[in-house]
Amino acid sequence: MDSTATASLASLWDEVSGTQPDPDLWVVIATLGAALAVVVPHPLWRVSRNAITIAHEGGHGLVALLTGRTLTGIRLHSDTSGLTVSRGKPHGIGMILTAAAGYTAPPLLGLGGASLLGSGRITLLLWLATALLLAMLVMIRNAYGALTMLVTGGLFVLVSWLAGPQVQAAFAYAVVWFLLIGGVRPAFELQAKRARGGAGDSDADQLSRLTHVPAGLWFFLFHAVSLCSLIGGGRWLLEM
Fold it and tell me: What pTM, to 2 d.p., does this model score?
């Protein structure tokens, strides 16, 4: 019995960690077009931005844990805003890294996903994403956030378990393109909102207070990370 279970686990690990064939170039281009279609038009972006918020708040939460802070809860709101609450020192490197992780998380996740896809590890990407979503679900503290996470996580579970290889590949490429492209827009939107006198307590403002570095330089960092991730990740995805 033990040997059978061990063999099954080994087989499962080989399946997850192994490589899969690259999709045809037209699939890569089509998923790029699909990502642009849900990021560029404002009506669709108002809906799809919820997924970027998941990555944004997940970035805050993950870095808070990695820097020794206590993560107490995450909220996702219907206006695509979010809030991650952690306990610990209100200053210092842990708080700075936690605050900086939000706007940089979606493009960096996209870059990491592009690296996995570039090496043919489609299944591993889908399973890692599903595990991260399930872990984040445990920390959600409001009904809308829980619903959003269940729908998103459920979609990943369905594709990972029930879809064929071609559908899994197309889905994985679409998700990574979306993170890379969708990760660029929020920092520009926030910068425009601040120029109109809004968002006075944004991540950039919090970082400015924590570090005494002007908020504009933090926006430069957000833009640099997102644009470099898009360029680098896009090259990986398009190299067939």
Answer: 0.93
